[in-house]
Design a protein that fits this description.
Strands 1-2-4-3 form a four-stranded antiparallel beta sheet, sandwiched between helices. It starts with 6 loop residues before the first helix and ends in a 23-residue tail after the last helix. The radius of gyration is 18 Å and the shape is globular. It has one domain: NADH Oxidase (3-Layer(aba) Sandwich). By secondary structure, the chain is of the alpha+beta class. It is built from eight helices and four strands. α3 runs antiparallel to α6. The protein is 32% helix and 15% strand. Pfam families: Nitroreductase.
């Protein structure tokens, strides 16, 4: 690697092939500072998400964003208790959903795939802007649908906490040991030559 990495990343994440360091330094902390995200900075994340690849250029992703205390309070009841313990400190919450239909009313089979790509772009730009993001699957989708008035032809994928990173010590003790970058499986576990095989 031609770029230096933060010690906490370098100790736990070493690529087998050279890549841009942004892919290593982006991870999902849980400790958030009590600091607002300026609107222009926040919108840059969604600008990045906007340019994700999209099957048929349908761009099925949608984001419902909560920035004020009142908006975030609407999100909190449908988030699982274990996640609420830390994500209530995040200054921004967003729910990512995707439209499941094509223009002619058929199923868009790539809607979730495209929404995932869009979230990935958002997460990388957040890291570029000095922010952290943490996507959560631990929430009640049907309660979110009702609370946020999400139509039935949209799938709900994740709640994302967005903000500036806070100190590890601000977390409950049970979360502190998990506040480190995770490793990844080797390429041999998921890249197969010619046909599928069990890793």
């Amino acid at each position: 690697m031609t770029h230096s990495l933060p010690a906490e990343v370098e100790d736990r994440r070493q690529p087998d092939h050279e890549i841009h360091p942004q892919f290593l330094t982006r991870w999902s902390p849980r400790s958030f500072k009590d600091q607002d995200v300026p609107e222009d900075v926040l919108l840059s994340l969604f600008e990045a998400a906007r340019w994700a690849p999209s099957g048929g250029n349908l761009q099925p992703w949608r984001y419902i964003v909560a920035r004020t205390a009142e908006e975030r309070a609407k999100f909190h009841p449908f988030i699982a208790a274990g996640n609420r313990e830390w994500c209530e400190n995040a200054p921004v919450l967003a729910v990512v959903i995707s439209y499941t239909q094509t223009a002619n009313g058929n199923l868009n089979s790539s809607h979730a795939f495209d929404a995932g790509a869009s979230w990935g772009y958002l997460a990388l730009e957040a890291a570029n802007q000095g922010l952290i993001t943490h996507a959560m699957g631990g929430f009640d989708k049907e309660a979110a649908r009702t609370t946020l008035q999400i139509p039935a032809d949209y799938d709900i994928h994740a709640v994302i906490a967005i903000g500036y990173r806070g100190p590890v010590e601000a977390l409950a003790e049970k979360f502190q040991e998990r506040e480190v970058p995770s490793s990844r499986k080797p390429l041999s576990d998921f890249v197969f030559s010619g046909e599928f095989r069990q890793s």
